[in-house]
Design brief:
- The chain is α/β, with parallel strands linked by helices.
- 31% of the residues lie in helices and 21% in strands.
- It has 2 domains: 181 residues, Rossmann fold, CATH 3.40.50.300; 66 residues, no CATH class.
- The strands form 2 sheets. Strands 6-7-8-3-9-10 form a 6-stranded mixed beta sheet, sandwiched between helices. A 4-stranded antiparallel beta sheet has the order 2-1-4-5, with helices on one face.
- It binds adenosine-5'-diphosphate and magnesium ion.
- The site of magnesium ion has 5 residues, from helix 2.
């Protein structure tokens, strides 16, 4: 059996984010929040992403796991509008977003926390947050700065500090806070746990779990399947630019106990 690395062992016992049983929800709530259909993209020849199909429903936390170089960040860049799709489509909240420019995607309900966090390092935490709040001003308001401070007290303590002086964990919290102030319906997070102390990872995942139970859709991109399996309901496994496996709701234990699957797709054992 492979080992669950990093913070994940402490998280293994957590209850996962669960949707309300289907029968308790009106039918329109089952419409997908995010759909990726037959998506291809890349930097040169051949394509890196080779026909991806992904669906995320409202209130789901879905994992996207894959080894280093599998194409996870390339997908994030296409979802963000930073790299064009070469084929296929992206639909957010029923709107075809495939060719919408990056700056307009948050208005459709999409927020992305990039791998490098992409904060304005020379601006303070408060300034970064206010910029995001302004950018999200036309969306239905779910988050404001006081609520963010309640969710992340460590962010509240650093409001007047320049972002480039923060620790990695603090920067990650500010990056997530900034994404939330865009008032999104769906948040994509590219490896938010990388390089962070287990305690910080636990705090971040606890916030994500709370968001998901309020109805937000989250795509958690992770190389660490211990973490992904501790909080996501189900997951797509990406390998060399293809979805090679789907871990269905309730399917994590079987996947984790299959050493062939884990080592073949994730290079972990
Ligand atoms: N800017 C780029 N130009 C060319 N190739 C790239 C670029 N960024 C990533 N790649 C390549 O795309 C593949 C997928 O990378 P990436 O999406 O970053 O994977 P992951 O996030 O899963 O580690 C890798 O082979 C990587 O070398
Ligand atoms: Mg990456």
């Amino acid at each position: 059996m492979f080992s669950i690395s990093g913070a994940s062992s402490a998280l293994a016992a957590w209850p996962k984010c669960r949707r309300t049983p289907p029968c308790a929800k009106p039918i329109w709530e089952f419409d997908a929040m995010l759909t990726v259909s037959n998506l291809t993209a890349g930097y040169g020849v051949p394509n890196i992403l080779q026909g991806l199909d992904i669906t995320v429903r409202p209130g789901e936390m879905v994992g996207l796991v894959g080894a280093n170089g599998a194409g996870k960040t390339t997908l994030v860049r296409v979802l963000a509008g930073l790299l064009p799709a070469r084929g296929g489509s992206i639909t957010i909240n029923g709107s075809d977003t495939t060719n919408v420019p990056a700056h307009a995607r948050p208005k459709l309900g999409l927020a992305i926390v990039l791998e490098n966090r992409n904060l304005f390092g020379e601006l303070t935490v408060a300034e970064n947050l206010r910029l995001a709040e302004r950018a999200g001003a036309n969306r239905p308001k779910k988050f404001d700065i006081p609520r963010i401070v309640e969710m992340f007290p460590a962010v509240g303590e650093k409001m007047a500090v320049r972002c480039d002086l923060l620790s990695g964990g603090q920067q990650q919290m500010v990056a997530i806070a900034r994404a939330l102030l865009l008032q999104p319906d769906v948040v994509i997070m590219d490896e938010p746990s990388t390089g962070l102390a287990p305690k910080v990872v636990k705090a971040i995942l606890e916030v994500l779990r709370g968001l998901c139970s309020e109805g937000m859709s989250i795509v958690l991109i992770e190389q660490n399947i211990g973490i992904a399996s501790s909080v996501t309901q189900r997951a797509y496994v990406l390998s060399t630019g293809r979805i090679v496996h789907h871990v269905a709701d309730g399917g994590w234990p079987a996947f984790l106990h299959d050493p062939h699957l884990v080592s073949r797709y994730l290079g972990q054992h």
